[in-house]
Amino acid sequence: MAILRQRTNGKKSSSDVKVEETSFQKSNTSGSPFLLLICASGICGCYLYFGIVQERVFSKGSASNAIKQVGSITSFMLLLSCITNVLVALLWISTSQKLFPKQRESNGSDKPLNHMILFGNAFFYFAAMTASNEALSYVSYPTAVLAKSSKLIPTMLVGFLIEKKSYSVQEWLSAAFITGGITIFNLSRLSKDQSDDGDSIFGLFLLLFSLVMDGMLASFQNRLKVDQKKYRTASALECMLWVNLYAIIFMLPLSIATGQFQNGLKLFRPLDDDSIDASSTSSLSMTILWLNLTAAAGQIFIFFTISLFSPIMCTTITTTRKFFTILLSVWKFGHHFTVAQWTSILMVFGGLYLAIVSKFSSKDKIETTKEENKKNQ
Q1: How many angstroms separate the CA atoms of 331 and 324, rounded?
Q2: Per the UniProt record, which residue ranges are transmembrane (predicted)?
Q3: Residue 278: inside a domain, yes or no?
Q4: What's the sign of the alpha-carbon dihedral 186, 192, 194, 199?
């Protein structure tokens, strides 16, 4: 859609029209409401289970005790996740190429991928994730909640300023409703003694930097879908493979420099360190494997959402996914919703409705324009 909205000073050639139509067919024609439901369900399901396993690793049981003994391993875990994502994507791609060799030939595989764009995606992915995790040490929980809830707005602002994208009124309202609803719901759950007095300027800068990097990531993800004469469009699994592979280049040095790589290795070599309880690490390897495989499955649905729809739709799903997780948790424990929370729930559902309506109404308009152009030719 971003290609179709761009304006040029002169008339478009027939080759330009073909390029635009090809890009549209790849990113929108296949993006039916049913596929959107599958992608959204896959993202929500995978990361809901991911949260359960993650809690088991870091908060409960013997695995948590082992991690507390060795120290922080956040960047080490992120590194393992990237490696798992690479292996899963590589296995999927190699298997599909063996099963469907003709499909590979028809996809223009003779053209190379634009690795500069893929490398840029990996950098912004790494920068946003690192800044967000580091900011938690310098800001209060309410401030972090507010920043995480407002991810949609910066993403659209970067698209508007950098890519010169034009968003409809429905899309802006959708982002405002979802952001406002999630923010109100989360802030209403905070206790009165939680305040933002401990926020540092550096921590606020890290949060702002993280949001800008999220916006830049969405911008570069849009460029992955653009057909070019020199490069071919990367598939969803190819994006997953190369983005995570390049992310390892950034993640490995960070993990080693912070000492978290060494801490992580201690978990798998408890006998080399008398301070580590060997019995508490017996099942940790299998738990971490399930954690990474679940994250890899979630990434598959994320990259398919980006490929079939758009980065902004993916951001909408991932942002509201956290909201629904909290919503289910509150409902599960029998808590009653306040008036403010019911209002926020209606705002989020209203925003999601506007996002879906805007997505498929704009798709219908583009298809109508295509048919009219064919008739005029």
Answers
A1: 10
A2: 34-53, 73-93, 113-132, 200-220, 241-261, 288-312, 333-356
A3: yes
A4: positive
Res. 3: pLDDT tops 50:
no
Domain that holds residue 55: 29-372
How many domains does the structure of the chain reveal? Answer: 1
Give the contacts of 32 (CB within 8 A, at least 6 positions apart). none
Q: Which residues contact 124 (CB under 8 A, 6 or more apart)?
A: 213, 214, 216, 217, 220
Structural domain includes residue 328: yes
Tokens for 266? 């201690």
Q: For the chain, report the end-to-end CA distance as a whole number of angstroms.
A: 22
Query: Residue 207: pLDDT above 80?
Result: yes
**Tens-place pLDDT, residues 39-52:** 999 998 998 888 77
Q: Compute the C-alpha angle 228/231/237, nearest 5°.
A: 110
Question: Rounded distance, CA 51 to CA 48, Å?
Answer: 5
> Which range among 78-82, 97-101, 264-268, 281-285 shows the weakest confidence by mean pLDDT?
281-285
CA 267 from centre of chain: 28
Q: Quick check: pTM over 0.70?
A: yes
**13 found inside a domain:** no
Burial class, 45, CB count within 10 angstroms (exposed 0-12 / middle 13-18 / buried 19+): middle
Roughly what angle, to the nearest 10 degrees, separates helices 284-308 and 74-99? 60
Q: HSE-up of 9 (CA within 13 Å, CB side)? A: 0
**Which residue, 301, 310, 128, is CA-closest to 206?**
128
- 14 lies in a domain? no
Query: Do residues 134 and 318 lie in contact, with contact meaning Cβ atoms separated by under 8 Å?
Result: no
